[in-house]
Amino acid sequence: MSLRRPPQRPIARIGVAYDTACCPEVTLAANDQNPDRPKRPLRVGAFFAELQRRRVPRALAAYGIGAFAALQVVEPVQHGLGLPEWVVTAIVVAVGLGFPVAVTLAWNFDLTLAAGLTRTPATLAPDGPHAHHHHSHAGPFAALIGASTILGAAVAGVVVWRITRSAPPMDADGRLRVAVADFANETHDPELDGLSWMLVSSLAESRRLVVVTRVRMVDELRRTGRPAVPLLDEAAGRDAARALGIRRLVLAAVHRLGSRHAIDLRVLDPATGEYLFALREQGEDKGSVQGMIDRISERARERLHAERPEEIRTSTAKVADVTTANLEAWRHYVQGLKGEDAMRDGIALDEYRKAVAIDPGFALAHFRIAYVGERMGVDAETRRAAMQAAVRGLDRMPAKERLLVQAWKAKMEGRPQDANAFYLRAAEAFPQDKEVVSAVGDFQYQEGRFAEALPWFERAVDLDPTWEPALANLIGTLAALDRAEDATRRTAQWTELRPGGESYRALATARLLAGQFLQAVEAGRRALELDPGIVSRRSLAEALVYDGHAEEAESLLRPFFTPTARIEDRRSASEMMIHALEHQGRRREALHVADAYPIDAAGHHWVRYLLLMGDPDARPALREAREVMRLGHPALEWLVPGALELGDEKLAAEAARHIKIDGLRSLYDGLIAWRRGNAQGALEILRALRSRWSGWNRATIDYRLARIAFDARHDAEGIALVEDFERRPGDIWRAWRLAELLLLKARAHERLGEREKAIATVDRLLAAWKHADPDLPRLAEAKSLRARLGASVSRRGRAPSSAADARRP
Prior knowledge:
This protein has 38 helices and ten strands. By secondary structure, the chain is α/β, with parallel strands linked by helices. Strands 5, 6, 7, 8, 9 and 10 form a six-stranded mixed beta sheet that branches. It has a two-stranded antiparallel sheet with strand order 1-2. Strand 9 (260-268) and strand 10 form a beta hairpin. The model is unreliable at 1-33, 128-135 and 798-809 (pLDDT under 50).
């Protein structure tokens, strides 16, 4: 009996059938030699089996877990150790390129606890004559290494691309422009209303961030036609940020979580509307808010990627240390800053004083009291005490304020070179900070170096074209350089680009300085239409006074002197109301407003001095001048010419020790020469000075020159100087000086035989004084002169009135 095998599928090979069951090696050999069939169909399975034998998948899994963990901790470690940014990139690239290396090592080596690192044995080939047919894995392994290399490089490239993509778009100066919208105060606690300013203060410590002010953003929204913006929320902030080219907008909210407080912060790309990242900080109670601001600010700076970790570390300060730990004091400080930006120095000063009353150690608020106090005429002792308090907290101040305080201290101590050096250091460290840049210019201006001040004010305006304090300084400086027409041209262009209350008020000021009083009134009316507040009313009232409409100016300001008016509005309107009353000859009412003027004692005596120094009796004015000297008013160097004219050379010499303004010493010398009978010598000195002085100071020199010229009987020169004086604005003294000069001019016309012009000049003065105090010193003099001139003309036959002396614009 024979055993039969089941039939097998033959493999054809040149017409011969082979039994695969008995000769499997022949099948493989035949398969290798057949070009028309797939090669080695068993190789893929065998290769994966070999991968398993060599434990390559397990090694790669371990490598992947380790790489992922490394990438999770590398960024925190980099920030914690202050390592440069390229360290993260290098580690990511190394992880990606290490993938093929891991594959190679896993293929060739085994790692065991017993034997350690050993070479993996190759696949054993069968013995016998067909040993050369064992499997070879060189080709698949090479493909695996190539694919691993490509994959690793791709992963590293993607990660690096993501890191590079996260880098923010910097400006040409290498800095990132950011803005902070108003905090959403969901706690409704008023003490937390100023947190956005606190966050701005913290972010502004960075040398790589340019934090655009809230005022700048609101002004931009107004320029685009949006009405008042009481809250700069996300929508308004994004619109303003896009219009201003701001790269990142910070949005934040503070709210309660039970008994805890939390701050949520998001950063938005205004151009795309994409939220780039979000952060949260929590604290136990309201007292922990400042610490939360510190932490979330530092984290935000890290995520903005605008600065290196070491830059963040060296330019970070705790908010409570550099400001105040009392949130209510901080709220008043913020209100003071807002008052300064709105050119409401009186409000600002009140708020700073409230802040230091709550926190006597609040150094920043003390500094602002000294700074704003000089503009407000606060006495020297008060300003000195505030400065001393600020200096005591110098080491806790932010870097910018520290330099400004040191500069202001040097200025107050009479060390102008040191002050200038500190200001220049501040400008170098904070070149994009408008307050710093403007402060440098302001110092140069106060020293009388107008040409040096101009580029600083121009830079400040370039940084924030809507910042009214810098614009006012720029206009005043151009006028001081006898470039009033240039100031007018620039402000007119600004009204076309940014029509608003600020631009038209600036145009009104420029028109006044150019002697274009009627056009100044037009600009003032337009400012009032666009921004109907106290600042615009005051601007229009000033233009009306100089254009000969003092009564209308008075009616415009009268609402601020009612019993229900706010004290800050009355303070803002008082000086211009004194102007309006003085130009009508209503001296008693002007003095009453001055006495009720809510300012410090030094400022009060200064205003009374300016009003009384024009009276025939010099004693009241000298009493006020001595009080000004005793209290140390910021402008006491200007007592020099007034004290000489009042006959007190000793007081003038004492005030002369405080002269800082270039040319004031020459004015002193010229007036001394005149008092000692050398009118010709005085004229020569003052004529030379007039060629150097312009702007606000030109009216001062024209008044003195005209008096001396009339005294020396240079009548034609004196008349020309009076006419020039009429075309210039001035201080509170302008009204009585104008009256005095008009009477001197009328007498000069009379001496020249020009009686009609003399009569027209006196008539103009009497028309302005139709409601004057009956006992006004020069009123009787003007009426007497008019009667005498009229009688003289009547005897000679009345001539037609002259149009040459008509009121000039």
